[in-house]
Amino acid sequence: MAKVPVQFTLNGSEKAEFIESGTTLLHVLRDKIGDTSPKGGCHQGTCGACSVIIDGELRLSCLTLAETCNGADIRTTAGLAEGGVLHPLQRAFLDAFATQCGFCTPGMIMAAKALLDRTPNPSRDDAVEALSGNICRCTGYEPIIQAVLTAARANSQNAA
Amino acid sequence: MELRKDYFADVRKDDLHEIGQPRPRLDSPGHVTGKTAYFADRNFPGMLHLKMVRSPHHHARIRSIDTSEAEKHPGVVRVLTAKDVPHNVYTILILIQIGPEDETVLADGKLRWKGEAVVAVLAETERAAQEAAAKVKVDYEVLRAVFDMEEALKPGAPIVNEYHGRNYYLYDSGECRKVRFGDVEAGFAEADHILEQSYQSSPIEHAPTETTGCVVAPEGNDRFTCYTNTQAMFFTLDNTSIILQMPGSKLHFVGGTVGGGFGGKVDVIVEPIAILAAKLTGRPVSFIYSREEEMQISSPRAAERVVIKDGVMKDGRIVARKVTGYTDAGAYSRHSPYGAQKGAAHYPGPYTIPNVWIDTYCVYTNRTPSSAMRGFGVTIGDFALEVQMDKLARLIGMDPLEFRFINAYRDGDMKAHRQPTEGAALIECMQEASRAANWPVAEKYMAMSSYRKGA
Questions:
Q1: A90–B32: do the CB atoms touch at under 8 Å?
Q2: Containing domain of residue A75, as a range?
Q3: Which residues of A touch B51 (CB under 8 A)?
């Protein structure tokens, strides 16, 4: 089958691959580029484990065709820490006991980051709404919501 | 968090320095940075994808299987049927002598539940494997199926599993696990009231976010490394060794990181066939359940039916309890004979009852095989028992919490399965619950202790 070139920026570094037309971004990120932080939980857009940020928007990489991402800026949880220093969201998830099996965590963190990028001081309802597309089977969600609100407070204190 | 130190003050050390303190999870740094390696994060050049052809019927005989069209499909490397599996009939608990072997890795002659694995297809891509699987032709003779446990136990019901020859697991105690303690009929004769109720539950799926699967890499020295999300590493290793007739020294299992298990990943299902596929093709193999397979094919918690008959006195004492429990194993044993047995030991609940009679049956039906899930064998029983306790309290017009104090087991009490009670703390838990929930009980109950005087 003829291959299609695709080129984008992943966590600030340029990537180029030849892919089969119809390949999902999740597959390209995980199996071709080797960023396995987005997870495949359902491959049908219902669990949120594959969430990434494309050009500032939260997207489900299992439903995104890679060839639509030409020239895009793609962000994943693997690229969130800078110089070995955890992002406030990562720190907050760690401190708030917001991970158990960890499989949903990278997607949760991406959903939370998309929220804080557009709403730096979210209400609890904002946080619940922002995480509503991400399924966690272990924590019962409460520690995750608390982690997002804690990270938002840490961000606003740093900005002040 | 408040730590109450007045309970068991004489037996407790006061140098606790972990409880009540936040402690970081060791695995969290990997989780929040996306670095934790789950089995599916392993990718090998030339990896093949395995897809299963599954039974569309609940109960059927296989007249013939034609894989010729599937084998010709572009990208297909190998198609596996029952004859390729060295020791095709197995059962997980054979490792602890709980037989007979009753389940096929790939169906041979007969299918016993809708979704059972029949043929495995290996292809260069997931898509090619899926397309080729759809081209496998199986000629089925559909058989009468049975889905209800009590129907399955009636004479004339279709036999689900010939390896058992009857629709229940035969324990060394007979057709069910039995607990006999005191004289239950004398207890009922003495009772002021008798209450008999039935409780039942549906199968429950664990629905982990990460689906069941494994990735296998042949190592070149005739060894195979299997990256798996099993919750039962050594059960899987040893059963794979039996199924593939391979010494354990040829098998290297890597696991321990599970994206949600809840008991749903203790069966030995994906690893043996994936390792066999890697052996026969010489290629790495990935076998990962789709979300649909996770929901429909992986073992759920068993459906249960619990019939409880209690004799109770006006003063609140339960004097007799008779329980008949049914565990729906589905078509195969897996862990269900053990689950039903656990129920037998558990049914008196945390209460001291002088006359107890318990029968628990592990029943075979043409439903998805059930297996472990968080406290399987006792969780549904606890639901039934505690609803029953509330009903009994209402029947005699007593406060439900005070009713439980009267019957709570205490140190030294003999349990129905003849283990003396040790280290009981039910009284103290209920006292604290009474305070925390602001559900006051009479002072005499607040003065009780799990220690009996002189015990």
A1: yes
A2: 3-79
A3: none
Chain A positions touching B207 (Cβ under 8 A) are: 137
What distance in Å separates the CA atoms of residue B316 and residue A73, rounded to the nearest whole number? 70
A74 with A95, same domain: the answer is no
pLDDT at B308 over 70: yes
Going by C-alpha positions, the residue among B141, B116, B386 that lies closest to residue B273 is: B116
Question: Could you tell me which chain B residue has the CA closest to the CA of A36?
Answer: B41
Per-residue pLDDT, A1: 64
Give the pLDDT of residue A156. Answer: 81
Q: What is the pLDDT of residue B342?
A: 94
ipTM of the modeled complex: 0.96
Q: Which amino acid is at A11?
A: N
Residue A30 maps to which CATH number?
3.10.20.30
Domain ranges of chain B: 41-143+207-296, 177-204+301-446
Which tens digit of pLDDT belongs to each residue from B333-367? Answer: 999 999 999 999 999 899 999 999 999 999 999 99
Tokens matching residue B11: 């037996």
Q: Are residues A153 and A92 in the same domain?
A: yes
| Pairwise CA distance, residues B107 & B130, whole Å | 19
Q: Residues B333, B167: contact at Cβ < 8 Å? A: no
Question: Nearest by CB to B209, which of A77, A81, A103?
Answer: A103
Q: Contact B140/B53 with Cβ under 8 angstroms?
A: no
Q: Which of B194, B61, B76 is nearest to B135 (CA)?
A: B76
pLDDT at B9 over 50: yes
Asked if residue A40 and residue A16 are part of one domain, the reply reads: yes
> A residues 72-91 near B, CB within 8 Å?
76-78, 80-81, 86, 89-90
Whether residue A99 is predicted with pLDDT greater than 80 in this model: the reply is yes
Across the range B150-158, mean pLDDT stands at 97
Does A41 have pLDDT greater than 80? Answer: yes
Q: What's the CATH number for B177-204+301-446?
A: 3.30.365.10
Tell me which residue has tokens 């945390």. B350
pTM for the model: 0.95
Same domain, A75 and A92: no
Average pLDDT over residues B104-131: 97
Task: Tell me the pLDDT of chain B averaged across its residues.
Answer: 95
Q: Do B211 and A93 touch (CB under 8 A)?
A: no
pLDDT at B364: 98
User: Topology of B41-143+207-296 in CATH?
Assistant: Aldehyde Oxidoreductase; domain 3 (3.90.1170)
Q: How far apart are alpha carbons B128 and B50 in whole angstroms?
A: 10
Instruction: State percent of chain B over pLDDT 70.
Output: 99
Coil vs helix vs strand at A90: helix
Under 8 Å between Cβ of A69 and A59: no
